[in-house]
Amino acid sequence: MTRRFIFAALVLAAGGAFAQSKPWDHIGREATPAEIKAWDIDVRPDFKGLPKGSGSVALGEKVWEAQCASCHGSFGESNEVFTPIVGGTTKADIETGRVKNLVLGSNFPQRTTLMKVATVSTLWDYINRAMPWNAPKTLKTDEVYGVLAYILNMGDIVPADFTLSDQNIAEVQKRMPNRNGMAFHEPLWKADGKGDVKNVACMKDCPTEAQVRSSLPDFARDAHGNILEQNRVVGPVRGADTTKPPVKAPLGSAPRPAAVVAAAAPLPAAGGVDVKALLAANGCTACHGVSNKIVGPGFTEILARHKGRADLESYLTQKIRNGGSGVFGAVPMPPQPQLKEGDAQAIARWIAAGPR
Amino acid sequence: MEQARKARRSFMGKALAMGAGAIAAGQATRARAAEGDPAILELPEHTRGLGRPVAERPYGLPSQWEANLQRRESPGLTRVPQASVSFTPLQGLFGIITPSGLHFERHHQGWWDIDPSKHRLMVHGLVKRSRVFTMDELMRLPSVSRIHFIECGANSAPEWGNVALPTVQYTHGMVSCSEFTGVLLSTLLDMCGIDRKTAKFVLAEGADGSSMTRTIAIERALDDCIVAWGMNGEMLRPENGYPLRLVVPGVQGVSWVKYLRRIEVGDQKWATKDEAVHYIDLMPDGTHRQYTGIQECKSVITTPSGGQMLLDKGFYNVSGLAWSGRGRIQRVDVSVDGGRNWRTARLEGPVLDKALARFNIDWVWDGKPAILQSRAIDSTGYVQPKINQLRAVRGTRSIYHQNAIQSWRVAESGEVFNVQVY
């Protein structure tokens, strides 16, 4: 009996010693199961983390048209805002698990998501965590299954009457067009890996033609703005004035361009809302040009369509926040729940005043 | 762009352009003054008056004359500013530290200025004790401070095929270097009782809209990863992950998860979107290399560089940056004749592991055309390759890992152009 107590005391002492091995070990607290569940949303290629649920292609199409098509196009083909999701894969690719259009020599012009992604879990995980783009994490589990089913159907990976679920997603994995297209290149994963591209540090009379093989054409000279305004006004160099053709004459035979400090963009009127900044901050300019259509109509086109309305400002305000469809073509505008009423009103007023 | 300008330069007006013009006019007048330089003979306003008071600007700002050095976007690079890049103006910087306000940005779903009292970090998975930490608690822990570069995997990507960009700001501006302060990730993992037998990887996750996730090897996690709140002696900037981010030295910037909220310890890689759809390298045979996080050795001359004009013939201190995700910079060589002959540059110091290193070298320009190149060698002996050597192995569609020797052509006019030379 005594021996057993002594042994127990030793065990406790050892445990205590471990628990106090560092003076900061008590900092922080236990995570509750509910907390872990709230944040532990990742889904692995072995589908660890995948929630139970299901969604049909038909459900996905409904969600897609309401929330996804404005950026990704009705058939996932759009490259207007983000790179396209669908296209470039064939039935033969689905059989082999390799995408022929990825091999050098193909003239297919895009690299769509379905051409690249090898693991269907990646798509489930990303749709769930990050979509819709301006209102992430608002889709229900079954809606995520549905949207993914719709994407897979558009890529001919599943039929139109398919319902994707946690029970059958592993079977779908076997049909991913690029499932065999990934190569693990350990030298670029390991910090101590060896490079696969070799060069020799020759120092003198090195074997090179030293030919200029590529340069920027003169017409692209100011595509990034006037470089004169992107360099310091003091020091050993100045920025070149790229609003003018390059100087041909040798140094010293032509006058030096004067250096300038870029003027700030004028501030909006005191108390006024900077609508241009609002449009950029809320992603409006991804779909709407000022006068040109991008995905949706340009702002001047909107004004032209609705010019006669007596309630123009309030009509536009609610359209901006609630979304809508049918007024301009087939692509619906998704709701913008993140946009405050006052901000939507400012945008509506700006459109009504004649945007520029 | 407008927002950045206003935030940084709200005190500016168009008069500055006239003021700067006056500098040039002053220079022109100098040569004609028989009795001496008017800048000396005529006492300037700042010598004849009272200067400004203390705390007029509680947080100090750059000189108004420095307004040209700003982060900038590359027009047409992306369609939406929330999923885009702003480039660091490397052409105008000195030393190895990037000013926090000029640190490049890369966002996938926009940035936020988060209330730090509401930010939490969770550590869970293959650990004995899943833990939640507040910012208060994390900042009580033993801290380290280290200087490291961060580089977006797509830095210099547009140049894989041919010259596409005019200046070093756009060719190389997705790299920055800061001193980061925080607790080692290994400390947190030990506090949670990591299961070292089964733990092979950790998943890092952010708290923003994209809740970005990346798989990190356990060796990296236990080696030099930092859970950081500090940057250059103050808290992180919101664009750089305030109040908490992961620092993964030597690894692509996409792994340096901003607004860090969760670390999960696991036994398999996760194939997240940013390691299964993006940040995968397309090879000529149609396969993609996956999990290629290490940034290989690279360098670039920043002065003189593309879009700049030399003021005169004669001596120049050619200056640039070099870095390697595998260790420190051992040596940098510079050529002024397109790679036929090279001389070894000075390293300014400090030269640190997985940090930018500044090099410089003497050059006397005789007014004839020249092609400037730098070539870095890191502590593993790896020699920075030419673009044609990269293409021979990887083709032109890799997007990532473009660490080629950069060439700048100096014309007789003194203007410098981006070119590819080999």
From TrEMBL, chain A:
Residues 55-155, 267-355 form the Cytochrome c domain. The keyword Transcription does not apply. PROSITE patterns: CYTC. Residues 1-19 form the signal peptide. Keywords: Electron transport, Heme, Iron, Metal-binding, Signal, Transport. Heme c binds at residues 284, 288, 333. One of its GO terms (molecular function) is iron ion binding. SUPFAM superfamilies: Cytochrome c. InterPro entries: Cyt_c-like_dom, Cyt_c-like_dom_sf, Cyt_c_ID, Cytochrome_c-type_DH. Binds 1 heme c group covalently per subunit. It comes from the Bacteria. This is C-type cytochrome. It comes from Hydrogenophaga crocea. The lineage of its organism: Bacteria, Pseudomonadati, Pseudomonadota, Betaproteobacteria, Burkholderiales.
